[in-house]
Amino acid sequence: MQEKKVLLEVNNLKKYFPVKTGMFAKEKSFVKAVDDVSFHIRQGETLGLVGESGCGKTTTGRTIMKLYEPTSGQIIYDGKNIEALSEKQMVPYRKRLQMIFQDPYASLNPRMTVGDIIGEAIEIHKLMGKKERQERVLELLNTVGLNRDHGARYPHEFSGGQRQRIGIARSLAVNPDFIVCDEPISALDVSIQAQIVNMLEELQEKLNLTYLFIAHDLSMVKHISNRIGVMYLGKLVEIGSSNDLYNKPLHPYTKALLSAIPIPDPNLAEKNKRIILQGETPSPIDPKPGCRFKDRCKYAKEKCGIEEPRLKIVEGGRSVACHLF
Length: 325
Ligand code: SF4
Description:
By secondary structure, this protein is α/β, with parallel strands linked by helices. It has one domain: Rossmann fold (3-Layer(aba) Sandwich). It contains eleven helices and twelve strands. Strand 1 and strand 2 form a beta hairpin. The two termini are 30 Å apart. The chain binds iron/sulfur cluster. Iron/sulfur cluster binds next to loops.
C-alpha cells in the first residue's frame, strides 16, 4: 500500500523561554521547554505525544500552531516552512491548522452564544455570508451530536463533555486538515472520555483529518494513535508505532509510563509490576549535560552524565534516545 504524504514535518524545533535567575534576578537563563525535537506526521494519521506535565508537549503543539514563536527549527507544513512566516503570511495556514484545548470551559467565551463561538472563525476569515454561516453552524452542531437549540445557549449551560463538543465544532468550522488536540479528554469524566475519542476518530475518517494528540498518560492515546512520541524534559525520548510502544517499550522512561497504567487482569498485573520513578523531574532551566533522565534512571552509567543521547532508529522504524541502544 502506498504511504500517505507527510503533512507536517518538525525539524530540530526549539522553544526557549527566558527567565531571570541568580541574586537580584540579574542573570538570564532559559527554560528549554522544547529542545531539538524532530518528528513527522502523515496525512490522516494520529501522532500521540505523551509525557508528564512540564515535559514540553503542550509547548510543542502551541509552537507548531505558531501561538509561540519558535526559538529555532523548521515547521514544514504541506511542503512549506511556516516557521518564519509573518502573521499575514500565516493567514491561509491559520484555517488549515486548528486546535482543541484541554479546558473546554476556559477556552469558550462565556459572553458569546454557542452559535457565535462556532461561527466566529468563519466570520473572521470572511468565508461566508450571514445566512450561509448560520446554516454551517447548524450543520456543525449536528456533526458533534448537539442540536440546533444549543446554538442559542451559553457555554455555562453545558456539561464538560458537551463543551468539548462545542470546542471541536469550533475547530472544524473552517475546514482544517490538521488539528492539535491538546489534552482534550484529560478534564473529562472517564465515561465521557471514550465518547469524545470515538467522535474524533469518526471525524478523522470522514474528513481525512490529521491529529497531533497530546496527553499526559499513555492509556489516553492508545486507541487513537497510529504512532506515539514520548517526551521528557523538553526532549523526544522515544517514537514508534502504537503497537510497538505498548508491547515492547524501549526507553526506561517509556517503560515507567507504561507500567503506571492499571491492568484489570490481576494475573497480568502481577507480571507487570509498576516502576516507581525515584526523585523529582529536574528543572528545565539550563539542564545539566548528559541524559536528562539520568537522575531517575536505574540503568544510568558514567556516559549518561557526560553525553546527551541522540534519537536514533533502532528497529522497525522506531527511534529511541538512550545509550543502552
Ligand atoms: Fe538511562 Fe542512560 Fe538511557 Fe538516559 S541514556 S535513559 S540515563 S540508560
